[in-house]
Amino acid sequence: MEVKLLNIGFGNTVLANRVVAIVSPASAPMKRLKEDARQANKLVDATMGRRTRSIIITDSDHVILSGVQAETIAQRLVSDASTRESAASAKAAKE
Predict the structure, then answer these.
(1) Contact 76, 19 (CB under 8 A)
(2) Residue 54 buriedness (CB in 10 A; 0-12 / 13-18 / 19+)
(3) Cβ-contact 18, 60 below 8 angstroms
(4) Residues 6 or more apart from 12 whose CB is under 8 A from it?
(5) pTM of this prediction?
């Protein structure tokens, strides 16, 4: 199994294959989710003191706060996956 890291800003990374959702923190349910995670000791603050711009939910029920926009993180996740797929197909074509 290949380890894929996703850059969530300010030098922080998460395992890409553990990410379930990347959401905006503006809605009331996301604010409740953040507080519930804090109470359960499953909140990771990776904002580096900046404003929370996205919330990342993992398959282990950890909630990660990031100072980078959700759209930017999603683009990084998609572009990383497409880059790896094209490299794998080029490798297969050589063989």
Answers:
(1) no
(2) buried
(3) yes
(4) 46, 48, 66
(5) 0.85
Q: How far apart are CA 88 and CA 78, in angstroms?
A: 15
pLDDT digits (tens, 9 = 90+) for 12-60: 999 999 999 999 999 999 999 999 999 999 999 999 999 999 999 999 9
φ, ψ dihedrals at 41, nearest 5°: 60, 40
Distance CA 90, CA 35 (A): 46
SS3 category, 21: strand
Report residue 64 CA to chain centroid gap.
8
